[in-house]
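Record 1 of the preview.
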Amino acid sequence: MDRLDLPLSPAPGLDGLRAEVRAFIADHSAGWSPVERARSWMSFDRSFSRALGQRGWIGMTWPAAYGGHGRSAIERYVVLEELLAAGAPVGAHWIADRQSGPLILRVGSEAQRRAILPRIAAGELSFCIGMSEPDSGSDLASIRARARRRDGG
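->
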């Protein structure tokens, strides 16, 4: 049998995690309208983000020292897949969990990591990013920049 013909089997425990997330969503989604579900990434619900944080589903792969849970990337994927499939309101924590938090974890100071990351993981801190560059908009790969030495910097 060719390696490509082997059936894929999920890592142990993922079915249980998926069921846990679905039950959580069922408990929280009663009032979500179809329009709200369609705007999942843009829907802002601080209490929902806090509830996710209490479950350990924000900052899942981060070290515990910074409020994370040391979980695997595939576990994080399962949680995100279920949230987005259900149209959950993830806008209050999406940028912080997906972009700003990992950037702070990688290049932030120790003081920044300790002050900011636990609040993101708890669903208490939100971030937004603004990307509007001439001739680029949000296409950050097309940004052109140059530096010129001037007096004082």
